[in-house]
Design brief:
- The structure is a single chain.
- The protein is α/β, with parallel strands linked by helices and 231 residues long.
- It has one domain: 3-Layer(aba) Sandwich (Rossmann fold).
- The chain is built from 8 helices and 9 strands.
- Strands 5-6-7-3-8-9 form a 6-stranded mixed sheet, sandwiched between helices. Strands 2-1-4 form a 3-stranded antiparallel sheet, with helices on one face.
- The protein is globular and about 50 Å long.
- The chain starts with a strand and ends in an 8-residue tail after the last helix.
Length: 231
């Protein structure tokens, strides 16, 4: 599958909030602090920009962006993504057999579909929302800080799961986060944005070892207690 190349501008009558370009070969981390434009970028790709914003977007890829088909979304917080009063099986938009198949793909028993979300652990809930995204058989999976609500051990488990699923199903990943330490484990490349503009991009390992932007350096230092990537 060829690269996914995209440029987008998001603005309103007062100012331009986002003006960036990026390319996804296999997996890209879009990194920046709160207010940098990460969430607006995701909403633009999903066709979910709030009213009052205008969008100019040009994307080149081998597939058309269609939410729920070629494009899947994994939300930030699995605890709020699902209705606590509805059985998990009734929150899918695919056939039951596909739901069971997707649950098994993420390492969960199909019988969990009969449970209510509060009956599952945080790790199980995160796997469930990943399974829901996987059921669309996407070409591009958008990940909105899906490890933020998890502890360090579960974050590593989710990263390993996503890498396994990507190798098996061949989708591209756009991982939106402020957590560079997790991004470095998951993604091949990185684009760092500040106030809606790209300040640095490149191969993940190279940027981690030798960041050219002071902003990128500050983000890395804020994320790491050790300097394993800076040696």
């Amino acid at each position: 599958m060829g690269d996914f190349n995209c440029s987008l501008k998001i603005e309103n009558d007062e100012r331009r909030f986002v003006d960036i370009s990026f390319s996804i070969k296999r997996s890209l981390a879009l990194v920046g602090e709160s207010g940098s434009g990460k969430s607006l970028t995701l909403k633009a790709l999903l066709g979910m920009l709030p009213s009052g914003f205008s969008l100019k977007m040009e994307c080149e890829s081998e597939f058309e962006l269609k939410r729920g088909e070629t494009l899947a979304y994994v939300p930030q917080n699995p605890f709020t993504a699902l209705s606590p009063l509805t059985k998990i099986k009734d929150q899918w938009i695919v056939a039951e057999e596909m739901a069971k198949e997707s649950m098994r793909a993420v390492g969960l028993e199909a019988e969990m579909l009969l449970r209510f979300p509060p009956e599952l652990s945080g790790g199980q809930l995160q796997r469930t929302v990943i399974a829901m995204a996987l059921a669309a058989k996407p070409k591009l999976m958008l990940l909105d800080e899906p490890t933020t609500a998890l502890d360090a051990k579960l974050r590593d488990v989710v990263v390993e799961l996503l890498l396994k699923l990507q190798a098996e199903f061949g989708f591209k990943m756009l991982f939106v986060t402020h957590d560079i330490s997790t991004a470095a484990k998951l993604c091949d490349e990185i684009t760092v944005i500040k106030e809606g503009r790209v300040v640095e991009s490149g191969i993940m390992s190279e940027v981690m070892k030798n960041p050219k932007s002071g902003y990128t350096k500050a983000l890395i230092e804020a994320n790491f207690a050790n300097r394993e990537f800076r040696e």
